[in-house]
Specification:
heterodimer, A: alpha/beta, Pyruvate-ferredoxin Oxidoreductase, domain 3, 7-stranded mixed β-sheet, globular, B: alpha/beta, Rossmann fold, 2 domains, 4-stranded mixed β-sheet, 13 helices, about 40% helix
Chain lengths: ~190, ~400
């Protein structure tokens, strides 16, 4: 990992993408690291495409602008692959983590990217439905991202998911999200 | 012991206000400030503070209520943005003219029309002549630290003036960043108990605020207001020194970054200064002597100190995130006035960037530094004022 890791999230309003970026920032605080999490604000509507960003660094983060050349692109809603170019600004080695039941090779063809770019898929919506009965793919996506980047241990991440969801939700929902995060971590596939 | 957290700028400033626990808070929501006052209202409802909330029907009323509460003898805060600050305008003069130390975080946002909710500095720059002290902040940490220090500055017995603490809307107010909170008791001790000066509610000694003064003494009254502003710099530095002892974080009238031996320099406020520091480092790695100056205290403006800091640069660009249409950007006008007093001055240009939340990117900073390098090498200035980052 370079000194600063930059992540760009693509999701749709109402999928918990911004929450996921916040939880990741919290989880990455450990070890004295510097973090940023910020969404691109527009009119906030359920279903509308949105972007959110993370920066994680061992150095103080002074940059206050969107991530232009991400190290990791996380696509929380695969239907976005048909409507926007999620590979915009991708560089050598940029990794893609996509919520999809399909094989990473199929997604790779859609993305038009180079051999240095890795593509990972995880069926995050399915996992979310299995674990807590709602199509909220953010927690399994967090698990998958955590596996791909190695930014934090699964235990740390689960602790922060528990803290973050604990403020708002019933125990059953929290447990479901913890299980979904774990499964996202375990089931993400590289191709 | 400091507590490390990952929070938004709004959350950080709301927490600073909670730690100070003022007597009265005027509350009226406006994007992007809303979330700060919403959090503060929760502190009130949950008994975390014993502030009296005054819920009002407009920002004009909010500032009016704050003026009344402050004159009555309370420690008073409110917060606003954009149109809200514009609507307060006439009351801002009354707060400063009556010498009421009201503390007001301003989450900087563009002004209508056209309607825009994003960050630029038009709101606070539009009230730079209202007699308020203005302190500007690069990130959430600075907004938090500046809010705490603002109480000591505004309430200082030699000063007694209202203070605005500015931070960029959305870019800072809604971004989560790592920062350090001070302990509640540290903040309480640092700010100290509120000291009254001529409270209206002291019924033993009746007094009046804001009476009619015509041609006999109005002129002298305003001169006194100017003179008290001249004392603010020293108090800001004294408070910053105490703050550094407590927190380890150093503040001045402005911040310089690799400026001492710089040939070319950018003067820029708030969040964009952080982005520009990264650009400065990249250019320095290539052997280009670039530097930066980020103003902190904008009112009163530290003219002599800034001229001293910039005098050795050969070319300087002042970047404004607001405009005085038909004139130069407001920050440029101040820096220009500061430098005019020098015998040998750097060449000076003005760029307008980032209005209505348009992204300020490292490439913009690079472009400006490249132009400055050409000017420093004897090239001609093509335009004294120019908009950058414009869509073609």
């Amino acid at each position: 990992m370079s000194a600063t890791l930059e992540i760009r999230w693509h999701g749709r309003g109402g999928q918990g993408t911004v929450t996921a970026a916040k939880v990741l920032a919290d989880a990455c605080l450990s070890g004295g690291r510097h973090v940023q999490a910020f969404p691109e604000y527009g009119p906030e509507r359920a279903g509308a495409p949105l972007r959110a960003y993370n920066r994680v660094s061992s150095k103080e983060l002074r940059m206050h602008c969107p991530v232009m050349n991400p190290d990791v692109v996380t696509v929380v809603d695969a239907t976005l692959l048909d409507s926007i170019n999620v590979a915009e600004g991708a560089k050598e080695g940029t990794a893609f983590v996509v919520n999809s039941p399909r094989d990473p090779k199929e997604i790779r063809q859609k993305l038009k990217i180079g051999p240095s770019n890795k593509v990972y898929t995880v069926d995050a919506t399915r996992i979310a439905l299995d674990c807590f009965g709602r199509a909220m793919p953010n927690s399994p996506m967090l698990g998958a991202l955590c596996k791909v980047t190695g930014l934090v241990s699964l235990e740390n991440l689960l602790e922060d998911v528990r803290k973050s969801f604990g403020k708002k939700f019933a125990q059953k929902v929290i447990d479901g999200n913890l299980e979904a995060t774990r499964r996202g971590f375990e089931e993400v596939k590289e191709g | 012991m400091a507590k490390v957290v990952a929070v938004t700028g709004n959350e950080a400033v709301a927490n600073a206000l909670r730690q100070v626990n003022p007597d009265v808070c005027g509350i009226y929501p406006i994007t992007p400030q809303t979330d700060m006052m919403q959090r503060y209202a929760s502190y009130i409802s949950n008994g975390k503070v014993d502030t009296e909330a005054i819920l009002v029907e407009s920002e004009h009323s909010s500032m009016s209520a704050c003026i009344g509460a402050s004159a009555a003898g309370g420690r008073v805060v409110t917060a606003t943005s954009s149109q809200g600050l514009a609507l307060m305008w006439e009351m801002l003069h009354i707060a400063s003219g009556d010498r009421l130390p009201i503390i007001m975080p301003v989450v900087n946002r563009a002004l209508s029309a056209p309607l825009n909710i994003h960050g630029d500095h038009s709101d606070a720059m539009g009230c730079r002549d209202t007699g308020w002290i203005q302190i500007w902040s690069e990130n959430g940490q600075e907004a938090y630290d500046n809010t705490i220090q603002a109480f000591r500055v505004g309430e200082h017995m030699d000063i007694r003036l209202p203070v605005m603490v500015c931070m960029d809307g959305f870019i800072i107010s809604h971004s989560i960043e790592r920062m350090e909170y001070l302990e509640d008791d540290e903040v309480k001790k640092f700010v100290g108990p509120f000291k009254n000066l001529f409270p209206l509610l002291d019924l033993e000694k009746p007094k009046s605020y804001g009476p009619l003064i015509l041609t006999d003494l109005y002129h002298e009254y305003k001169k006194a207001q100017h003179e008290v502003m001249l004392k603010v710099k020293d108090v800001v530095l004294e408070v910053a020194k105490d703050f550094e002892k407590m927190s380890g974080r150093k503040y001045g009238l402005f911040e310089t970054y690799r400026l001492e031996d710089a040939d070319i320099a950018i003067v820029i406020l708030n969040s964009a200064a952080g982005t520009t520091k990264d650009v400065v480092d990249e250019l320095r790695d290539k052997g280009i002597k670039a530097g930066l100056l980020k103003p902190r205290l904008f009112r009163p403006f530290p003219y002599e100190e800034m001229a001293e800091a910039l005098k050795n640069a050969r070319a300087v660009c002042v970047m404004d995130r607001s405009d005085s249409f038909g004139g130069y950007g407001p920050l440029f006008m101040e820096v220009s006035s500061a430098l005019y007093q020098l015998k040998n001055r750097p060449a000076l240009i003005n760029k307008i960037y980032g209005l209505g939340g348009r992204d300020y990117l490292p490439s913009h900073g690079e472009m400006v530094f490249n132009e400055l390098a050409e000017i420093a090498a004897g090239g001609k200035i093509k335009a004294y004022k120019e908009y950058i980052g414009v869509r073609e």
